[in-house]
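General statements about sequence and structure are easier to judge against a single worked case. When preparing material for the folding task, we compiled for one chain both its residues and its backbone structure tokens. The amino acid sequence and the backbone structure tokens for this protein are reproduced below:
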Amino acid sequence: MGNSMGLDKVPPMPGKEGEAACLRQKLEQTQADLKDYQARILQQEKLAAIGQLAAGVAHEINNPVGFITSNLHSLRKYLDKLTEYIGVQDELIGHYDNPAAQERLRAAKKALKIDFVLEDIEHLLGESIDGAQRVNRIVQGLKSFSRVSDNEVKAIDLEQCLENTLNLVWNEIKFKAKMVRDYQPLPLVPCCEQQMAQVFMNLLVNAAQAIEQQGCITLSTRYEHGWVSVAISDTGGGIAPEHLDRLFEPFFTTKEVGQGTGLGLAIVHDIIQKHGGDIKVGSTPGRGTCFTLRLPATTEGEGAHG
């Protein structure tokens, strides 16, 4: 009995509590890592679904946009011919000595506003052609972005990738910011085009959301010592200094609850690192923010283009 009571009163071994605490800590870390992994997988699945939808939409839009654009160009040529014909007709009628007929023609031309109609048709055609070309650019951007299964690393034109992505998010920007481009000729860069489009999309949308009313977004490209850099800066509210070091942490966000997942910049950082590059951020509260990413340029065909 004495031995039994003595065993009941023996305190736990000192190392047991520490071991249990260590196991709890490891379990919590594993759970956090799993949560992070699940969120990233979910984000990838969403992007895959969006990509498939975008590919289908782009395919369906491409054909009608093609013949609309072709028809508009044909209409412009026909308008030029009709305008020239009307001009010759007016000149010939003016040579006939029939004041009553000439007056009737002038009155009809004025009443029907023929001069205005001819001028306005040209204006409307110009706007329609510009709109069709913009739709075509959006379709091309969708095609690039929809290559979700294409993880092939190949030499791409980063400036064109940036412009394609800008077309996709233009609706987020056009009412809030003026775009300023400061491009320098770049060599091709080896990377996954769809992933880079995802990087640019996150940074462009963030820049637009940082601007409350009216502002400016500047896109800059540089090439130096084998490295290509792309900077996206805005004149928004800026980022508080205490938040700068945490921007690329998963689930960290300065947005209101429900407004952001906190994964966007973490994914951007991950993509850039996997491409052998780096990304830096500079910000001044009340004045704006600049994200600058650097990527190694391809060693094949170092000739710049632009």
